[in-house]
């Protein structure tokens, strides 16, 4: 069998079209940059930039944008062997508006569905998924079939492999292998919940979505049991306060972390925005670190950079506080840049920022870098 991947991610992919001017409403934007996008895909790119062997499981349309995404993945040195085409649905496109420091509305063109939600369980390379040192999946992958079944199938395979791993330790901690990360990744616009009045499919309160509800509480209630199933198989859970509330009904950071650990994972990572990040391990280790101050240009890719750096630090076996500081710095670098995928930092750039230096302009530092 080939050498296992350091990181395999599974989830969204698409084309991000970002305005090349900030502080301008989308209706007034006249020039855009085209970038590889999608949270799980960006995490794979971020880990690859840090020297990890990565791959992504996802699907595109059979179209020119799909061809572009394959080309971009190869340029970023992310293995695209499990990126397959779907005939029926086009590759999704996402637009955003950029109003620094904290307003970045997203406009997803993924209706009525997207190719990356058409991943089929029987298509999965379960041997490779079992063997990967880290498997990363997302909440969005649970939002509809067949992606839901495929995601849960992959998680069960990971759980079976972990249960039979000779590297399992009595403490439940493993030396940088068999890590399964659940990125809580709450995108309510991708979810559907049963309407209160399902006998009235023509209810004008639900235009274009008969028999379903867009009520936030109903959507969360529909998602929570699926999140609970995924958490039972995860060793690491990562999410912001909104996502923690969806997963375990808690928004207070310490309460959320404890609830996540009680649901199954060994490590809970709670992102608190301007208050930094809290990480809590089942063995009692806690790390709470502040954010790295930067002038924010576009905050949309920061969480994905954080995720790729989190994978890198966990694989390196660093202590928890070091992992969190490193991931924070990686996220800050991307927040200070316009793009997402192409903005993912190299290791030397992260080290420079951790040392108190400025965020380097992309391309000013060579990628060959000490960790």
Unreliable segments of 5+ consecutive residues: 168-176, 198-204
Distance between the first and last residues' Cα: 29 Å
String of helices and strands = EEEHEHEEEEHEHEEEHEHHEEEHHH
Shape: globular
Report helical residue fraction: 25-40%
- What is the overall pLDDT average? 90
How many DSSP-defined strands? Answer: 16
Mind summarizing the main beta sheet? 10 strands, mixed
Which strand-content bin applies to the residues?
15-25%
Question: Overview of this structure, please?
Answer:
- The chain has 371 residues and is of the alpha/beta class.
- It is built from 10 helices and 16 strands.
- The protein has helices spanning 39-49, 64-75, 126-131, 147-163, 216-231, 241-248, 253-262, 302-316, 320-335, 347-354; strands spanning 7-10, 14-19, 32-37, 54-61, 78-79, 83-86, 93-96, 106-109, 134-138, 179-183, 193-194, 212-213, 236-240, 267-271, 277-281, 286-289.
- Helix 2 links the parallel strand 4 and strand 5.
- The longest helix has 17 residues, at 147-163.
- The protein is globular.
């Amino acid at each position: 069998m080939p050498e296992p991947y350091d990181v395999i991610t599974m989830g969204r992919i698409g084309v991000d079209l970002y305005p090349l001017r900030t502080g301008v409403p989308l209706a007034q934007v006249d020039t855009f940059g085209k970038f590889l996008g999608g949270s799980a895909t960006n995490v794979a790119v971020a880990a690859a930039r840090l020297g990890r062997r990565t791959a992504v499981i996802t699907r595109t349309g059979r179209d020119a944008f799909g061809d572009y995404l394959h080309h971009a993945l190869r340029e970023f040195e992310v293995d695209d062997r499990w990126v397959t085409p779907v005939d029926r649905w086009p590759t999704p496109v996402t637009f955003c508006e950029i109003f620094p420091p904290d307003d970045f509305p997203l406009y997803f063109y993924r209706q009525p569905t997207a190719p990356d939600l058409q991943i089929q369980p029987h298509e999965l390379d379960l041997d490779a998924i079992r063997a990967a040192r880290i498997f990363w999946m997302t909440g969005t992958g649970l939002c509809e079939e067949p992606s839901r079944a495929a995601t849960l199938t992959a998680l069960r395979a990971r759980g079976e492999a972990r249960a039979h791993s000779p590297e399992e330790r009595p403490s439940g901690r493993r030396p940088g292998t068999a890590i399964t990360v659940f990125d809580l990744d709450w995108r309510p616009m991708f979810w559907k919940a049963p309407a209160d009045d399902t006998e009235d499919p023509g209810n004008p309160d639900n235009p274009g979505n008969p028999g379903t509800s867009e009520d936030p509480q109903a959507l969360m209630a529909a998602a929570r049991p699926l999140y609970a199933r995924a958490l039972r198989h995860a060793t690491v859970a990562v999410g912001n306060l909104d996502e923690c509330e969806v997963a375990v009904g808690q928004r207070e950071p310490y309460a959320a972390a404890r609830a996540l650990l009680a649901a199954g994972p060994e490590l809970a990572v709670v992102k608190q925005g301007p208050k930094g990040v809290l990480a809590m391990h089942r063995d009692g280790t806690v790390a709470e670190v502040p954010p790295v101050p930067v002038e924010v240009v576009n905050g949309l890719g920061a969480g994905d950079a954080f995720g790729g750096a989190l994978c890198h630090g966990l694989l390196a076996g660093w202590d928890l506080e070091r992992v969190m500081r490193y991931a924070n710095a990686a996220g800050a670098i991307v927040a200070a840049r316009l793009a997402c995928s192409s903005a993912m930092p190299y290791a030397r750039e992260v080290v420079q920022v951790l040392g108190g230096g400025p965020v380097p302009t992309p391309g000013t530092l060579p990628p060959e870098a000490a960790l």
